[in-house]
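stage 2 :: seqdesign
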């Protein structure tokens, strides 16, 4: 069975959201893992990230994000994604994302950048993945009204993932 695992040192899980309706705040998650297993020429994909590993380059904001107003990391330590039957040549991957105990279907755009062998003989695959979620769909409702109208944070969160996966080939040993 062929299996791929995420190479964390060469991958990034990012997001961005409109702030004050005039600028964009970017962030990422530093702790994550994922794999893809081949089943009948297609892959099933599982991915999980630790919500407490959020980083927006602002300590106070990051503390707020892991608290009960947003991710509530103590109660919901991970965000999870699962998909079945992904084909590298497909422009999308459809699956389910779970945030704060709420699971919703999601369709993500995928660009497969191909495969190459690193200097140590490992086959690597590269992907660029993007999509959007609504914060309200996952009970991430905290916001603050602006005196000029509108809200501090947009509802829409843009997801941007740059993923490199390492190919593992399991071989059955004969008895």
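stage 2 :: out
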């Amino acid at each position: 069975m062929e299996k791929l695992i995420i190479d964390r040192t060469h991958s990034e899980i990012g997001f961005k959201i409109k702030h004050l309706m005039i600028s964009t705040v970017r962030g990422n998650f530093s702790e994550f893992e994922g794999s893809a297993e081949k089943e009948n020429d297609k892959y099933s994909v599982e991915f999980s990230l630790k919500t407490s590993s959020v980083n927006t380059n602002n300590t106070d904001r990051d503390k707020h994000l892991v608290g009960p107003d947003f991710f509530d990391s103590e109660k919901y330590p991970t965000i999870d994604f699962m998909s079945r039957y992904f084909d590298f040549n497909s422009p999308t991957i459809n699956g389910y994302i779970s945030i704060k105990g709420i699971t919703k279907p999601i369709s993500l755009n995928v660009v497969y950048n191909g495969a190459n062998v690193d200097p140590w003989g490992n086959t690597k695959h590269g992907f660029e993945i993007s999509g959007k979620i609504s914060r309200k769909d996952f009970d991430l409702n905290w916001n603050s009204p602006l005196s000029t109208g509108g809200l501090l944070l947009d509802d829409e969160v843009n997801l941007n993932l740059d993923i490199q996966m390492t190919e593992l080939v399991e071989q059955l040993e004969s008895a």
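stage 3 :: structure notes
- The longest strand covers residues 153-169.
- Confidence is low (pLDDT under 50) at residues 171-175.
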